[in-house]
Write a structure and sequence with these properties.
119 residues, OB fold (Dihydrolipoamide Acetyltransferase, E2P), 5-stranded antiparallel β-sheet, two-stranded antiparallel sheet, 2 helices, 8% helix, tRNA-binding, CsaA, RNA-binding, Tyrosine-tRNA_ligase_regulator
Length: 119
C-alpha cells in the first residue's frame, strides 16, 4: 500500500519536555452554540497543583455530553490562553482525527491521578 510521505520536522528531547501533557477529568460539559464548528465547552480538573481549566473541543460527532462527564483526557496545559468566541480556552484537549474528520479523544486506558504528566 502506498501512503503519502509524511513530512516530519525533528525536535529535540528538550523541546518535547517543554510540552506539559497532563491527565485531567472532565467535570463540566456545555453546548457551545457560538462556535463556528459544532463543539462543547469543557471544564477539566487537572488536580490540585494545576486546578480547573476550561477548553472547547470539536468532539460532538463521537461523544454525547453525558459520556464525557467523569472521563479522563490528556491535555496540553501550558499553552497561552486562546480566545475562541466568548470562551477563553486554557488548555488543549488532545485527540486523533478519524478518516471521516471526527475527533477521537486521547485518553489513558486506566485511571491515573489528575495532573499526572505524560512522559
Amino acid at each position: 500500500m502506498n501512503r503519502p510521505a509524511m513530512r516530519q520536522e525533528l525536535i529535540s528531547w528538550d523541546d518535547f519536555e517543554q510540552v506539559e501533557l497532563r491527565v485531567g477529568t472532565i467535570v463540566e460539559v456545555h453546548d457551545f452554540p457560538e462556535a463556528r464548528k459544532p463543539a462543547y465547552r469543557l471544564t477539566i480538573d487537572f488536580g490540585e497543583a494545576i486546578g480547573l481549566k476550561k477548553s472547547s473541543a470539536q468532539i460532538t460527532t463521537r461523544y454525547e455530553k453525558e459520556q464525557l462527564l467523569g472521563k479522563q483526557v490528556i491535555g496540553v496545559v501550558n499553552f497561552p490562553v486562546k480566545q475562541i468566541g466568548p470562551v477563553q480556552s486554557e488548555c488543549l484537549v488532545t485527540g486523533f482525527y478519524h478518516p471521516d474528520g471526527s475527533v477521537i479523544l486521547a485518553v489513558p486506558d486506566q485511571a491515573v491521578p489528575n495532573g499526572s504528566k505524560l512522559g
